[in-house]
Each structure stands twice: as C-alpha cells, then as structure tokens.
Write a sequence for this structure.
C-alpha cells in the first residue's frame, strides 16, 4: 500500500515540509500541526507576513475576505485566497495560491500549494497535496460513527494499517480530483493523480493514477 508521505506528496510545495519530514505516514503529523504553526510563525519574514492576532500569520499578498472567520493558529501563504464566509476553525496551513471557498470549513489541516477547496467543503483532520481539487460539496468525514480508532484498508489486497487515532479525514495526494458531493470517509487515502467520480462514497486506500467510479469499479488511467 503506497500510503506513505513520499508516495503521496512532493514536499517542495508546502511550507509544512519540515513537519512532514519527521514522519513516515502523513496522518502521524495531524497531532502536531498546531505546535508546528506556533513554532514556524514567529520565524516568517515580517516584510512578507502580517501578524494580525496571536497565532495568526497571513502573507501580505494573500486575499482574505472580510466575512471569513480567521481562527488560530493559522498560516496563510503567498497568493492564497480565502473567500466569503470561510470558517477557519484551525489549526490550518493554507499553501501558496490555494483557494478556500465560500462557506468552506477547515479544521486541523495542511493544504499544499495550489490546493482548491472552493465551494461548500468540509476539510477536517486531513492533508491535501499540491493541486488537489475538491468539487463543490465534497467533505472529508473525520470521525467514525462508532468513534473507534481509524484503520487504513486496501480492499484490493487486504492490507491494513492501524493508525491509533480517532480523528482522521483524508490523505489526498498531489493532483487528485474529487467530484462534486463526494464523501471521503474516515481513513481514506487517495494516491496521486487519481480522479474520483461525483457523488462517490470513498473508503480506504485508492492507488495513484486511477479512476474511482464506485467501490467495485476502480480502473487504471491509460
């Protein structure tokens, strides 16, 4: 199962690289996002980043709409856009040129550079790779209904990885496209350059360079 950080992400495209480099699997970083932001924030150049509140650093060339809720701790990198009524519950790292759309909620997340979560998305306890795009209404469900610990499963091979954590949304690789109104269930890992059809219910590990049509119809891209 190619679910390691090196399998999913190019760390040249996130300000969070020093955090992710400490771990083998991406979900291992979730518990440390808050402390990392509070360590990194004070080191960011004052001529490039505003510091409008405790624990908040926003690049001067980022565009944050007045109606957005900006929580703490938070880093918004260069060129990012946070649109009308976005709810930044935080902790959150929003990458360069990323888009956080209207009525989108973030909670304990890392968005790599150029990520788009532009319309009515919930992204919780998740990491989205470079140029990942969630269509309108896509959510990452981050808590199982029975509140048990999340296990990442590869249903094709039967391989499992016990994560030891209860809050786990989705680990979404670089260049992933998830169609509108899809639900990425707890413990979902989507490999690089994979496309998920709209209205999908996704569980477990989906390999890179595939198309997820439904759980019984996952085909390799040609």
């Amino acid at each position: 199962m190619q679910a390691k950080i090196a399998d999913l992400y190019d760390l040249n495209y996130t300000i969070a690289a020093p955090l992710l480099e400490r771990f083998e699997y991406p979900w291992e970083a979730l518990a440390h996002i808050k402390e990392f932001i509070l360590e990194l924030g004070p080191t960011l150049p004052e001529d490039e980043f505003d510091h409008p509140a405790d624990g908040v650093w926003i690049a001067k060339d980022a565009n944050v709409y007045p109606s957005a809720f900006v929580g703490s701790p938070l880093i918004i990198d260069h060129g990012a856009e946070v649109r009308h009524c976005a709810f930044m519950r935080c902790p959150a790292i929003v990458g360069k040129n990323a888009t956080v759309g209207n009525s989108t909620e973030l909670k304990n997340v890392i968005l790599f550079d150029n990520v788009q979560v532009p319309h009515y998305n919930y992204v919780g306890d998740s990491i989205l790779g470079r140029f990942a795009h969630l269509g309108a209404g896509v959510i990452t469900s981050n808590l199982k209904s029975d509140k048990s610990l999340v296990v990442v499963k590869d249903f094709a091979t039967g391989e499992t990885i016990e994560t030891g954590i209860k809050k786990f949304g989705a680990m979404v690789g670089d260049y992933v496209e998830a169609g509108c109104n899809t639900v990425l269930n707890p413990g979902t890992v989507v490999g690089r350059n994979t496309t998920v059809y709209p209205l999908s219910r996704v569980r477990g590990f989906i390999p890179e360079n595939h198309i997820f049509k439904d759980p019984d119809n996952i085909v390799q891209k040609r």
Q: What stands out?
A: The first strand starts at residue 49 and ends at 53. The first helix runs from residue 5 to 8. The chain has a mean pLDDT of 97. The chain has three helices and 25 strands.
